[in-house]
Each structure stands twice: as structure tokens, then as C-alpha cells.
């Protein structure tokens, strides 16, 4: 039976840990021709830099060929072809589909239509499970553990799909504490807070974080997701609500790392980039190894 990766909860804690181990193996030895002779379809119906390019790098390093859509305007989607028909076609051509789509639930639907595995590379404001696995790999590399961590999530917690997937995955580990820092318009949706309450996991909500920043092990900054706002005035009101600056990091723990799924707009000042606590560019690099690990796991290559 085929396995898809649509929501981070499709995988167990044991699978998360297996992917962390595989990612470390691929980091040590990235070029492994495990997928030689296979074809992977990379279907991006929404803009991407890191996810698409790191997936395509991972696929190349595994020895497979890539077919794909980087811009829906250049495909028959622009002529009105349905997602159903596109996926039906592509699953006749490729051995694996990696898909990003602006609609929540589109990846699950594609997985139902496709007879080859589908990996969700982000579906609207819903989930971004491969980002979460690379975030977890970045956390374990820098903290040495996924247990007992105080995780600050800052910015657009309403539309930011990466924080939704990350909190679900981290809730599988020992004793996490979440601090959610967002303006009222962009708070963590109720269903995710309910999820944490049901699991008995502590979380706290704040408007500001400068006076509590010294408690953080991970500061996960997010971009305000302009493309998800129906009202541009509402976006203008919140777009610069949090800007992390180097001076704010003076009283942080020695082990703290600043993560961000990127792209960054204004939410991390460039004066943070040279600080040893900034980890977002290394985090993006970890995406290649983690995506090699995910493909290897899903295609049962190791
Ligand atoms: N982190 C992330 O999903 O980046 P892209 O939108 O550039 O793929």
C-alpha cells in the first residue's frame, strides 16, 4: 500500500526519529543513487524558493529525474483543467508526486486521486509537514534533544502553516512548553489550542515577548502571510508587528536558536544574521538532507 505525507500526524514519533537519523546519514553522504530510474513530479501551484529547490536538489542527489510545474500559468491548469485531472495524468507519468497548492485540503485530495505517493509541500494555511521535519532536524542538531524545550512561536500564527505542523509534531516529545506571541488578529487557531489542551500540554499566549525572551530555547519567527489576507488594509496594520533585533538577544539563553521557515520580510532585522544564535540559513540547508530522508522513507529505499 502506498504511503503519503499530507499531515505531520500521518507519521508516528518513531517515524520522526527515523527521518532524523536518515537526514543525518544523508548530510554525511548526500549523493546516493537510490532512486535511479525513477521519475518524481514536482508540482508547485503556489510560489516557492526553498521547498521546490531543496526537493529538486534532494531528488537529483538521489539519482531520479524530475518533471514538473513551477508556475501554474505554464500548465493546463490555466486552461481550466481540474486538480483531479492533473493529478490523474501526472500519477501515470511519475513514481512520486511532491505538491504545493494554495487550497487547504488539496494535498489530501491529490493523494486520494493518485496511485503513486503524494508529499504535501504546503497546502494553504493548513500544513507543511516536510518543513516541520526539517525544523525538527534543526532543533535536534542544535539542542541535542527534542524533549523539554520551551518553544516561542512569533508572528502570524493564524495563517502560518509551519507553526501548525510543528506544534503537532513537538507535542509527541517530553514536556514541551509553547509560548505563542501574536496580535489578536493572528492568534493560533482554536483547533490547535484544543489539540494541545487535550494532550495536557502547556501553552501561553502573549502580545509581546521582550520581557520573557530569556526563557526560550527556540524562537520560531514567522512572516505575516500577505497572500492569505482578503483585506489588504488588515495586512498593512499587522505586517510589521514584530521585528526581532540583535539587541533583544542579549539576555537569551546560550543554547537559544532563532528559526524561521523563510522567506523573511521584516520580522528579523538583518543585524541578527551574524549572531551565533541565528540559525535560519542553516535550517534551510537542512531541508535538502531532510527531504532526501523523507523520500527515502516514503519510497522504502533503506
Ligand atoms: N519555507 C518555505 O516553505 O519556503 P518557500 O515558500 O520558499 O518554499
Description:
The chain is of the alpha/beta class. The chain has two domains: 8-128 and 287-298, Aspartate/ornithine carbamoyltransferase (Rossmann fold); 129-284, Aspartate/ornithine carbamoyltransferase (Rossmann fold, 3-Layer(aba) Sandwich). Helix content is 35%, strand content 15%. It contains nine helices and nine strands. The protein has helices spanning 13-28, 50-61, 83-93, 106-113, 129-143, 161-170, 190-198, 232-238, 280-298; strands at 39-44, 65-69, 96-101, 118-123, 150-154, 177-181, 202-206, 218-221, 257-259. The chain has a five-stranded parallel β-sheet, with helices on one face. Strand 5 (150-154), helix 6 and strand 6 (177-181) form a beta-alpha-beta unit. Helix 1 (13-28) packs across helix 5 (129-143), helix 3 packs across helix 4 (106-113) and helix 5 (129-143) packs across helix 6 (161-170). The longest helix has 19 residues, at 280-298. It starts with 12 loop residues before the first helix and ends with a helix. The model has no long low-confidence stretch (mean pLDDT 96). Bound molecules: phosphoric acid mono(formamide)ester. The site of phosphoric acid mono(formamide)ester (CP) has 9 residues, from helix 2.
Amino acid at each position: 500500500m502506498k504511503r503519503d505525507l499530507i499531515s505531520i500526524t500521518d507519521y508516528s514519533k518513531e517515524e520522526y526519529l527515523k527521518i532524523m537519523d536518515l537526514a543525518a546519514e544523508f548530510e554525511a553522504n548526500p549523493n546516493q543513487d537510490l532512486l535511479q530510474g525513477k521519475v518524481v513530479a514536482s508540482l508547485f501551484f503556489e510560489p516557492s524558493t526553498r521547498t521546490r529547490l531543496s526537493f529538486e536538489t534532494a531528488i537529483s542527489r538521489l539519482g531520479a529525474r524530475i518533471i514538473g510545474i513551477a508556475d501554474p500559468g505554464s500548465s493546463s491548469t490555466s486552461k481550466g483543467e481540474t486538480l483531479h485531472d492533473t493529478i490523474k495524468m501526472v500519477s501515470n507519468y511519475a513514481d512520486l508526486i511532491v505538491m504545493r497548492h494554495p487550497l487547504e485540503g488539496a494535498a489530501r485530495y491529490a493523494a486520494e486521486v493518485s496511485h503513486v505517493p503524494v508529499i504535501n509541500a504546503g497546502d494553504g494555511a493548513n500544513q507543511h509537514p516536510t518543513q516541520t521535519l526539517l525544523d525538527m532536524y534543526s532543533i535536534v542538531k542544535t539542542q541535542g534533544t527534542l524533549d523539554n524545550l520551551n518553544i516561542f512561536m512569533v508572528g502570524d500564527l493564524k495563517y502560518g502553516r509551519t507553526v501548525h505542523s510543528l506544534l503537532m509534531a513537538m507535542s509527541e516529545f517530553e514536556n514541551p512548553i509553547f509560548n505563542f506571541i501574536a496580535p489578536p488578529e493572528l492568534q493560533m487557531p482554536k483547533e490547535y489550542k484544543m489539540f494541545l489542551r487535550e494532550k495536557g500540554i502547556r501553552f501561553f499566549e502573549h502580545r509581546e515577548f521582550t520581557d520573557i525572551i530569556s526563557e526560550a530555547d527556540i524562537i520560531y519567527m514567522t512572516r505575516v502571510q500577505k497572500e492569505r489576507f482578503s483585506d489588504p488594509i488588515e495586512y498593512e496594520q499587522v505586517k510589521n508587528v514584530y521585528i526581532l533585533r540583535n539587541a533583544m538577544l542579549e539576555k537569551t539563553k546560550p543554547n537559544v536558536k532563532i528559526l524561521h521557515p523563510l522567506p523573511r520580510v521584516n520580522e528579523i532585522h538583518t543585524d541578527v544574521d551574524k549572531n551565533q544564535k541565528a540559525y535560519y540559513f542553516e535550517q534551510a540547508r537542512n531541508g535538502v538532507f531532510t527531504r532526501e530522508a523523507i523520500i527515502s522513507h516514503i519510497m522504502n529505499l533503506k
